[in-house]
Amino acid sequence: MTVSRDSAARSGPEPVPDGRPPGAAGDPADVLAGLGSSWTWILTSALATLIPGIIVLAWPGGTLHVLAVVIGLYLLVTGAFRFVAAFSREGHGERLPRLLVAVLFVLAGVLCLRHPLQTVAALSLIVGVVWLLSGMLTAYAALAAKDLAHRGLVLGAAALGIVAGIVVLALPTQSAVVLTRLLGLWLVLLGLVELGVAFAWRSALRKARTGVLPGPAATV
């Protein structure tokens, strides 16, 4: 989960008050900041979580290999989104936990795609640990961020990730079908929360055009 800069000037394709496009200075960090805080980027990140959830729920009879590939790709893509979105915060203390979450997702995605680790127990352990740790880091970042917009929604999403991780780790799964349904359900729930954050941030950006600047936005 990531938090954007506290000004609509860092909202990607949205116009800024002085008319300068994001990243105009050519600084890669500024470009990443503008992209990561765009509501369309947040929306795409939400779809990257929601779509894999729908796929695994619609195909519960798929093999463990297919499930591992879908989950692995989800983790890699989500890690890339979170890496970019981490630069939408200026404070190093707020950016570091988001970068750690991004690295965690990428490493977990690589592990899921490794053939020797494609077992029900291994997938449950990897995904459960990722959701649990990312939820904890997200909650910490949300509490540490100053003037965070939609703080309650962000903390709720963090709590959802923590609960998802605990459930996946605590419930023994003896078959790929059971694991598929469990992971698919949580992916859909997390994706829907991210969609809510994306549209909430779009609303805040529209209010900014009327002269009321929003606080920092956050994405799951």
Automatic annotation (TrEMBL):
Q: Residue span of the signal peptide, if any?
A: none
Q: Which residues cross the membrane?
A: 39-59, 65-87, 99-117, 123-145, 152-171, 183-201
Specify the superkingdom. Bacteria
Keywords, A to Z, come to: Membrane, Transmembrane, Transmembrane helix
By its UniProt entry, which InterPro entries does this protein fall under? Acid_resist_chaperone_HdeD, DUF308_memb
- KW Transmembrane (keyword) present: yes
Start and end residues of each stretch annotated as Disordered: 1-23
**PANTHER family membership:** PROTEIN HDED
This protein is called HdeD family acid-resistance protein
Q: What organism is listed for this UniProt entry? A: Streptomyces kebangsaanensis
